[in-house]
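re: ur msg from earlier - yeah i can do the adenosine-2'-5'-diphosphate complex, just paste it... oh wait u already did. ok heres what im feeding in:
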Amino acid sequence: MTVPSIALNTGATIPQVGAGTWPLNDADAADVVATAIEVGYRHIDTATRYGNEAGVGEGIRRSGIAREKLFVTTKLDGQFQGDDRAIGGLHAALGRLGTDYVDLLLIHWPLPQRDAYVSTWRTFEKLHAEGLARAIGVSNFTPAHLERLAAETSIVPAVNQIQISPAIVRLEQRAYDAAHGIVTQSWSPLGGPSGAGSLLASAVLVDIAERLGRTPAQVVLRWHVQNGLVVIPKSSDRTRLAQNLDVFSFELSADDLAAIATLSQGPDAGVDSDVDGH
Ligand code: A2P
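and the outut:
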């Protein structure tokens, strides 16, 4: 299965579909990552906060695939903000992953009340210059946070990973990212462990899926892909992992997209940026 890649502002590319790993523990992450790579994934998303980087590393080794053929992302959460704490944070993450570099390192949450994301970003710039993080980016950043980085630091984030699904559309963030050459990635693209069941059961998605001979999850992932988003669905099941990668041989029509737009819960839906969540 060929998965298209999207260009980052570093000149590197990122496969448009990756395997999400939250909330897997180490043992499950090792199984899921090895299976994901076997069925064709080349992009794996983890975070120190998930507590499964060692499992992700084990799954990568078990797959037998060469490291340079993979795109691996991790994220550093609040305990690694400020005072160059991200240096130790990334070295520890690399140790757990068993790799010399990550393809993408993200600030997991801006935590604006802490007011340390600008200095953390400067540390990320150093880690990028050393080659330990081939690209650096952010997660859960609003346009206001990105504006501050633009005013006070040198490197434009390669990626902003935010919560997006047909229910949580985040149009303002996506427009800002696009206007500044930042690739938007969707987390919980199917609605997350607690939301996927109801989202995927919605009549709009079921109808489109039946007409196209696809599943509602494939319709949702195709919606992300057709919107130019990079998407990291999580599944622990081999069949669903394969299904979630197979979204490049059909298209949603303008009418389908209009019907899916009715699922939006409005511009302010979704988590805010002050949590230090998963
Ligand atoms: P499972 O791991 O049992 O497949 P998200 O990626 O938005 O965080 O959503 C993850 C949730 O969606 C998990 O509960 C996962 O369950 C479920 N899921 C993943 N892929 C599919 C699919 N193709 N069809 C139905 N549910 C799916």
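cool cool. The chain has one domain: 5-261. ping me if u need the other ligands too
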